[in-house]
């Protein structure tokens, strides 16, 4: 995917670009707002990665300018400001995601991948399936190999998020934010506890596992191992 | 800057302003009085002239010209100090009687200044001002009666003089009064000013004396003192954070440094660097960053950040969400988790922060009680407002330690081996006070009961 990275700190810029390139992305980098606006309007990108705090025209203004110029590319803010207010302000400006510095490379990759394949599944889609696992989004029922699986509400929400992002890595923070609306790290093994229950129901007793743990990154629901 | 000079002081300017206002006021008043008096005197004079003319005209008509001339001559001699003077000329402009020069024989009203005339009884021989009115008699002769206005002029001059004298006197009084009041005020202000300087130089616990003079001024110094209290507590908070960071981040930073040194030795030594070592170093860094994040969040909450986004928050929904999220966690750690959640309990606040607070309390209970303990989450409406409680039947916290655990980085000896930096309760406490609520720790007999109360 072709990405635009706005970041004023050279070390961070090089590091982030390296991480993204290693994952197979093509990166245009810039270090100031006007360049970002120029690149953003004259090229077509999959995802915009914007540092909020850059000298001169800041990331927020860059995104405002791009949005008013009709650029609807998904955007993710990188920021050192960890306040509820700042996040809400960023999302209100038209950002699609928000990542607080410092962050793990795997976290950024997962989020960029999730944003890059937008627009996500249309609402009209009512059934999703991976291999022999099927989720009926309307009836909220799950079957595997034709057998009905009973899930608790939380387990169902977790599975629904995983299957909507089937084949992609989802990180712990993405799950916390999207399944439980926790915008902070609770510290204990919240995700692991839920995930082990979900696995017990979805994977145990079947010929192969569909939910995979990706080391140092998160989880992936996939027919492939 | 130290000593305010009197002339440049506000007191002096104040006095000058007051004096100027008084001077202008007095001037206007006296000028107006002088004018009214003058107008009145002029009216009296012209009335008497008109009366005199009427009488003489009547005499001329009824008794004849000879009697008129005699009458005028008599009157000229009778009127003392020549208050009123006369002139009668025939139609050839020859003077027939009276002491006004024949040249003044004109019909109508005129002001006339006569050069000094020797009257015998008016020794100084000063010029005389007359207000004359002339009428034509039926045979063409002209009769003129003049009233001496010199007295009127004297009166006006005297009034003018007293206007100036009074004006100056009153202005001086106002100036002195203003200076006295101003100086007293200035002294008191100077006392306050000196107190401010001492505070700026570091005697932070000093407070401003009352300014006095009026309740408004005392209100000002009371408010300034309240502001100083707030500044002092904020500064204490800041100092606390710096000390905390210095003390409590040193340990994990030291550990990180040791790990990096081990790895460096491993690069050249016998034991190669393992992925575990690198991961441990990254984890150590992450935990340091998490501490920073929590500290920054606590201090921004204590400074009141986030209040502008407050809205209606459904506490029942949050409690349910946290309860469901932690049910499997509690099962895995062999705790029992129950909930007693009243429906539709709402408060004004920030949903995200309240979720974090309730999550933190639940985490605390799970981490600090032994397996087999019971934990109960509840929200209820009470007389005083809304109460969110997380209660357990674990070891509890001794009464003497309950205040301290709300402080940053404070950890009970028994919990030193558990994870965490001792910031959880400090954060919850900050979130509670941001919402105008309170965090209360009490004995659950046995165990600990943590209550967040929000005013109704």
TrEMBL record, chain A:
Domain Response regulatory: 2-116
Keywords for this protein: DNA-binding, Phosphoprotein, Transcription, Transcription regulation, Two-component regulatory system
Gene Ontology molecular function: phosphorelay response regulator activity; transcription cis-regulatory region binding
Any Gene Ontology CC annotation: cytosol
SMART domains reported for this sequence: REC, Trans_reg_C
Domain of life, per lineage: Bacteria
Residue numbers bearing the 4-aspartylphosphate modification: 51
UniProt-listed Pfam families: Response_reg (PF00072), Trans_reg_C (PF00486)
Gene3D superfamilies: 3.40.50.2300, 6.10.250.690, Winged helix-like DNA-binding domain superfamily/Winged helix DNA-binding domain
Span of domain OmpR/PhoB-type: 125-223
Keyword Phosphoprotein: yes
SUPFAM superfamilies reported for this sequence: C-terminal effector domain of the bipartite response regulators (SSF46894), CheY-like (SSF52172)
DNA-binding region as annotated in the record: 125-223
CDD domains, sorted: REC_OmpR_CusR-like, trans_reg_C
Spans traversing the lipid bilayer: none
Keyword Phosphoprotein found: yes
Gene Ontology biological process terms in this record: regulation of DNA-templated transcription
PANTHER family per the UniProt record, alphabetical: REGULATOR OF RPOS, TWO-COMPONENT RESPONSE REGULATOR
Name of this protein: Two-component system OmpR family response regulator
Organism: Novosphingobium hassiacum
Lineage summary: Bacteria, Pseudomonadati, Pseudomonadota, Alphaproteobacteria, Sphingomonadales
UniProtKB/TrEMBL annotation, chain B:
Annotated transmembrane regions: 12-31, 166-186
Entry keyword annotation includes Glycoprotein: no
Keyword Transport: no
Reaction catalyzed: ATP + protein L-histidine = ADP + protein N-phospho-L-histidine
Organism of derivation: Novosphingobium hassiacum
One Pfam family of this chain: HisKA
Official protein name in the record: histidine kinase
Entry keyword set: Kinase, Membrane, Phosphoprotein, Transferase, Transmembrane, Transmembrane helix, Two-component regulatory system
MF GO annotations: phosphorelay sensor kinase activity
Residue ranges occupied by any HAMP domain in the UniProt entry: 183-236
Histidine kinase domain residues: 244-456
Primary location class: membrane
Catalytic activity, EC: 2.7.13.3
GO cellular component entries: plasma membrane
